[in-house]
Records
---
Amino acid sequence: MVFPARPQVVVVGGGIRGSMFATTVLQHPDAVLVALCDPSPAVRDRNATTLGVPVHADVETMLSAHPDATAAIIATPDFAHRDVAVACASRGLDLLVEKPLATTTEDAEAIRAAAEESGSRVVVGFENRWNQKFLEVRDQLAQAAAGRVVAQVVNLNDTRWVPTEMLSWASKSSPAWFLMPHSLDLTMWLTGTHPVEVFARGTKRVLPELGVDTWDAVTASFAMSDGSTVVLNSSWVLPETAPSVFDFRYEVQTESSVYHFDISHDGVTRYDPDGISWLQFGVHERHGRLRGVPIDMASDFIAALNGEERDLPDAAYGCRITAAIEAVHASLATGLPQPL
Amino acid sequence: MVFPARPQVVVVGGGIRGSMFATTVLQHPDAVLVALCDPSPAVRDRNATTLGVPVHADVETMLSAHPDATAAIIATPDFAHRDVAVACASRGLDLLVEKPLATTTEDAEAIRAAAEESGSRVVVGFENRWNQKFLEVRDQLAQAAAGRVVAQVVNLNDTRWVPTEMLSWASKSSPAWFLMPHSLDLTMWLTGTHPVEVFARGTKRVLPELGVDTWDAVTASFAMSDGSTVVLNSSWVLPETAPSVFDFRYEVQTESSVYHFDISHDGVTRYDPDGISWLQFGVHERHGRLRGVPIDMASDFIAALNGEERDLPDAAYGCRITAAIEAVHASLATGLPQPL
Amino acid sequence: MVFPARPQVVVVGGGIRGSMFATTVLQHPDAVLVALCDPSPAVRDRNATTLGVPVHADVETMLSAHPDATAAIIATPDFAHRDVAVACASRGLDLLVEKPLATTTEDAEAIRAAAEESGSRVVVGFENRWNQKFLEVRDQLAQAAAGRVVAQVVNLNDTRWVPTEMLSWASKSSPAWFLMPHSLDLTMWLTGTHPVEVFARGTKRVLPELGVDTWDAVTASFAMSDGSTVVLNSSWVLPETAPSVFDFRYEVQTESSVYHFDISHDGVTRYDPDGISWLQFGVHERHGRLRGVPIDMASDFIAALNGEERDLPDAAYGCRITAAIEAVHASLATGLPQPL
Amino acid sequence: MVFPARPQVVVVGGGIRGSMFATTVLQHPDAVLVALCDPSPAVRDRNATTLGVPVHADVETMLSAHPDATAAIIATPDFAHRDVAVACASRGLDLLVEKPLATTTEDAEAIRAAAEESGSRVVVGFENRWNQKFLEVRDQLAQAAAGRVVAQVVNLNDTRWVPTEMLSWASKSSPAWFLMPHSLDLTMWLTGTHPVEVFARGTKRVLPELGVDTWDAVTASFAMSDGSTVVLNSSWVLPETAPSVFDFRYEVQTESSVYHFDISHDGVTRYDPDGISWLQFGVHERHGRLRGVPIDMASDFIAALNGEERDLPDAAYGCRITAAIEAVHASLATGLPQPL
């Protein structure tokens, strides 16, 4: 199969995720990595060395320098998606945007509008959809024997290292913004339903004392369109000694069955003099090539760009998730259920 | 230590729990089992044989026949506590009442009023307080190092066998009435806080089709007096192949720590040709005597009757729990948060 | 039931276990704690304060001072049972001896002989027999549906804290001497069989470097009298960060079923800033009284002394276990299977 | 990258594994599937339909019909590798042979000799080496911080469905022949050591009664070249209600650390009306292409055929494993340790 023109991809943001996506494109036979941009000189230097492509300080400079770019992967902080995504979409680039699409409905809709106007395709990076465990259960739930879903409960937490060390912008986010797009997406995608109302509560005590002015933990209760219920619990204050940085446990009850997922404990426990850890295999290297769930996601983005059929979460879906998480925060602020 | 008069105990209700409590009293050196009553002739016969004490058809007959009774254990169905408890309390008997105290605030308050008037002591059977796992963690949480509680999530579910086979009166109850008094009590007792508001959702689909007109599953979100949050999830529709009849998982997050309890999986798994089971050790016999959590509870009731100091949940506390679960159902009915 | 004379109990050894047993006797209504002996002045002082009974420096002095003693609990280091047990047995005292009865067949037989001559009763403290989990499975295995046992595998390990910190006499013991009496006893008692041959291997590398000249880890393969197999694995070098000091996992395969026990993980996990721990409930206090598996064992010893029927491991059985563990070490030394 | 000639691959055996490997080759861009052979007409028909390549009744016919074949994948029953592997190797075909290479040292050496004479490359399919969990831990164990290995214990069992239903040739195999090549390979490959002596025991009771004359369960104790110990436990009589067909738990103790693997429980539990299952993701399809551990293994075989560097288990290694498992059976027969 020969493609008249392989997608020419730029990456916006050179942190952990941006670098990983850039490497993925670089290693992919059906796409070309054109350039990367990041405001930090140190980050630019590091990526220039490892990737061997031009690096730029901002998206405008990059797009001007590379008018041949046809696609962009957006890996900036969550709250900073809008400007760069709109800039890319306005020039007609297809987009893979890290979840959530944006952290306000206004921003999300602006990205969607820009993409609609230019005809860009937008894919939102709900990467759990590339986890074979969820794929398999989604297939099983679609079969009649499972019956309809009754209730879902998702616990997705991080240790306090994430808001205090890993993210410089945690105070502009929350456990709800950072974690619930993942869990809410799964509840919708696994069972084919969507939320119609949300009620949320939270606690704000530990992180402010640690200098990060955001929620410690949020619990959100959703009514779904099919009459089932969804509970999402997300905390950002687990102790750093926890066996993995994230704690991800999911359960689905249907009319006939129950599924329990333990995603953070992936089968290998190490006890060493420093403590106990659950080894993680989400992204790993094999014969010099990255493998794993986000790599598969980026590969499907490239496949779609090359004309292959892929069922991918689009901008409208991204807007729906953003609206739902926005409503979580509205419920936290008002103490009342919020319609969706 | 010599007691001028050991408590003379009657038991109301001769089902699984009533029989167990009667046996407990019978085996206890510091109390006397006087009689038992139950409306079912078969149940009366069985208890007469195993216990060797008089059995009666109703509480009035029993109390008239045994004016020397000083205490009663109430083990009727949840919704049927009021009349028998009031009858006993009015005559000045001290009471151990199975949780919940009643299933309406009106009933619960009637019991409390009757007891207050006659000076009866009322103990409500929140038996998890006698589980050493919770006792130990309660002690740890009371220490400064744990910090204040941030969030609690309790999953307490039953297989559908409980509402469809075990309980004849399931349609007058719900997973919230049957299970949440346990879980709510623990959240309050472990951390020294109480609920000030509740919001709840539920699904009603499977059990009505199975002929039991009640909720399949309920999720309730509580705001607590100390600013922390509590989520209670309770379902009555787990498949009957589940490894234990109940599924009880509890987690507490504090400012410094996290505790995870797995109560239903008690360390022994059996794989046999019929399936997989987790052996349960809540109540067992040793050298002809019952042991276990509810036995310890009944023993502490007897100890208190004999003048020993025991910290036991009283009628006012029972009324508070009943009011909270009533509010869960009000929230289910109105779709709005309910103050407590 | 009135006893003409309650057992008058002395305790030999005032360490963790000796103190615990002394307290148990002190709190028991059907026995009298007479005295305790220990060579360490500090240990004596501590026990004198907490127990309020006479303390002595050695067993001879104690026995001379208390000629009324009728029973002894032996809680000295494993290798030091013989002299004190023989001293007590020779005077006709009934004995509860911590497992193993002794660490040479010669010592074990000497204790047995002394007891036989004087008519003393000897009970060896295989305390897992008082763990309800094993009691219940033993009952189930005795039923026809389980079929005969095919294979048993027992992992019973300690962190290196036990040989390097907890035991001053670890170099005179080994993971096989310290741990396998427990696991071997269970394999015999649960399934009603006994070993006829053993083959063992081990590694000696870590503990010698830490100054304790004994085996790091031993694996022993037993042929049982009924044709089934038993594998015992015991290590003394787990990292100190392990979630509990001991790691105890047991599996039994029968002709129809499989049982898996996880004894060290007792349902509660704590994550705190210092690490991860599994809370342990083997011994705990309730209303000022000790409870737990070794307390039940000591109580049954007292019950037996008072004439009640109890099925308890005796000196002959203790000799058999000692011979088996001795043969483990013989196999380690010779590289050959050892008949039993 | 252009290869002057892609490997032309034939597959010997069209069962579950043979079909899977054939599909893998068919889907691989760098290899050509030439033909498949199987003695069963039904199996041939099925593969002809799904694969669209010529199918033959035996290997000689196939090789004569396809003189251009350059490589063969051998997926016959374990005991039937020799003749077909020698036939292929004699013609100079490179081989991927399912583990174990053969079930007698004589057979294994014959394959090795044929391959050496013709210059064929032989790869033995120890597929766990393509499991990322083991790959990662192998890397960690190679680092100085882990210290040297002290002990390994591997439990690898199957439900009785495998010998009684899945394999028609189970009576010519055993749990040791079928399962221990996997576990022994891992112990050697993970830690860089090899066995120097083995002692084994087993039970033969359930399977003979079920009409399969082989061992129910075998336990083997290995002395390794570096002084560490290895215990392998393999049973073929787990109840069919077990949550997965295989039960695979592995632990490694080193001088500083412990690793626990639970391979059979891969994070998702399903409770449905038929029982409890752990979903398995070893092989799955994505966008019409197979993925998973054996697929990666076959791909690396193809990569090696195409000249890429791969570290693969060869015929000499396969002979060593076969000799070790043969010695397990010799120890079972003689009751004595066997040197290796």
---
Amino acid sequence: MSACEFESLEKSLETHLPEAELREVKRILFGKETRKLDLPSCAVDAASERDFELKGYGFEAAQEQLRPPRRIRVGLIQHRIVLPTDAPILDQINAMHNRVGEMVEVAAMCGVNIICFQETWTMPFAFCTREKHPWTEFAESAEEGNTTRFCQELAKKYNMVVVSPILEREELHDTLWNTAVVISNSGNVLGKSRKNHIPRVGDFNESTYYMEGDTGHTVFQTQFGKIAVNICYGRHHPLNWFMYSMNGAEIIFNPSATVGALSEPMWPIEARNAAIANHCFTCAINRVGTEHFKSEFTSGDGKKAHHDFGHFYGSSYVAAPDGSRTPGLSRTSDGLLVVEMDLNLNRQISDKWSFKMTGRYAEYAEKLTKAVTHDFKPNIVKE
Amino acid sequence: MSACEFESLEKSLETHLPEAELREVKRILFGKETRKLDLPSCAVDAASERDFELKGYGFEAAQEQLRPPRRIRVGLIQHRIVLPTDAPILDQINAMHNRVGEMVEVAAMCGVNIICFQETWTMPFAFCTREKHPWTEFAESAEEGNTTRFCQELAKKYNMVVVSPILEREELHDTLWNTAVVISNSGNVLGKSRKNHIPRVGDFNESTYYMEGDTGHTVFQTQFGKIAVNICYGRHHPLNWFMYSMNGAEIIFNPSATVGALSEPMWPIEARNAAIANHCFTCAINRVGTEHFKSEFTSGDGKKAHHDFGHFYGSSYVAAPDGSRTPGLSRTSDGLLVVEMDLNLNRQISDKWSFKMTGRYAEYAEKLTKAVTHDFKPNIVKE
């Protein structure tokens, strides 16, 4: 069985483990069990016709006396590219709009309030090729590009907040950025969040295309909660998640593009750790499939030139502040994950565990300020 | 099956999954497979006679041209208390010395260079009772207590660095601390590291007994590598791991005491995330079993008074900077985990992933300094 054939960890466990052991294994691996959502049959049928996986789970919170529940539904979409990477660019973009559009329609049937797409969702993840052309042509204005207009229509039509991660061209200076556009359910562009940390690893030195983001750790107050976007490689940096949380994020999305050989064992760890450490929900989204490029390229690993760099393993999931998580979407197919959460859980868990109050942040601020100077003397004791 | 009967996740998977699926499941759950160590038969026999689990795994690193391998062996010990909690205190301590002493002897047979015991290993984890007496009588001087002298003997006898987490009494001021004493293989006390973050959660407000540590993020340069100790609840704080790493730690130990209902799904996440994020090895150690106390106590959860607060689930493990980890020790029995690691792996993974160079730490120092002021204005965008 090769890594791009294996459908999912969850399915394997459910198929083979006896009931009593499965319960213990799932408790240890996934925490408190998430409730399966009863999704409308029209949505189930549409997902089946349109050939994508549809799964729904709910996280519970306790009933409080003074606050009503703040129960919302989040949708995560993972998908393959639709057309070959050498098809005309506009055709590729339009095909992706159509595909995601029909998935968002199902999300609307499921009552989703906030939806997030995968990193640079309108294009193949071509940054391994190191070619500037034609890939930079996929870049669009965050405020006025076709993709943003498309998402604004979706937002208005379905009364849904849309998080749309694209390759951004800032037209004034012709600079490129890896940017998530956040569109309110009113259809207005609420703002944008640029990728804060840029990888130089494996096939990717993405600073060939775009540099570290300058939008800081903006949090967007939507009708359905305070959200933030930590794009892809930023999930490896605990301080990045932390600063979004310090600005009040209740849900942090992590739209990503990452392949099995590189990162798969880290995938279930990092977003989930961030949910635990910051008393918030995190949503990890990864694309699916293998993308073939016409020109061959090398990976800086001594191996032969090749036309693809491996299998994007999907496995999108949502993690909760209490350490629990949903099962993941498939490793191999397009999918929509619908997750109901009561945002009151964040404060309930914070009141229980108190990481923000026991964090000694003022001391870390002082220590970090000293540690970043070039002449920092680390505290090492020798015999 | 109750949570204190279930032996281990790993065993359940290995018993029930077909070979090909097991390989994929283990790859996703544990990363690159660790090599099983071929431990000497005298050690295997002694562990069996002395009724504890003995497991050994090795992490590999690439061969370099300019640096020889820095291959060392680390030992983690998890155990139950030996005598009932109402036995005379000195008897309890001596019984624990004997038990751990016979386990360390086996570690020496296995070539262990650095050994770490569980949090406050000489005593029951009695801080749930909120009684000061008799528990504070377990406290000892870090520099001159009997337990430190016992560990110094072990260190010299076996040429082993010993990390000994105890309840410390600082005699000058009669203050108590939760402290790990680090003893060089020469037998000298190299220093101590006090618990930086103190829980106020569930059964435990440990500040009833001891306050936040004042020893900062000291790293100890030993003959076998640079080590640090992040005690128990400190594992929930990513900044804590991070500052040990900023001071150069190559291995961070996390001696703990934590029970299933509270934290088990978080256990495999946090130390492992720290190993990934900080390009170092982390060693998570938890005690085993259920501890009964003579006086009943309540847990602040509306439930009836009781005499124990649940099952310590063991499951000690080691995580590597490449995202891989060893299987865990049993959830139910005493155990010694022997792990061989080549410390060169840390720099190799750092050179690959470059988190320290892409971390933008200077910007976080500035942001955190602002964020900790009481009049901090979070960056929240509204429509």
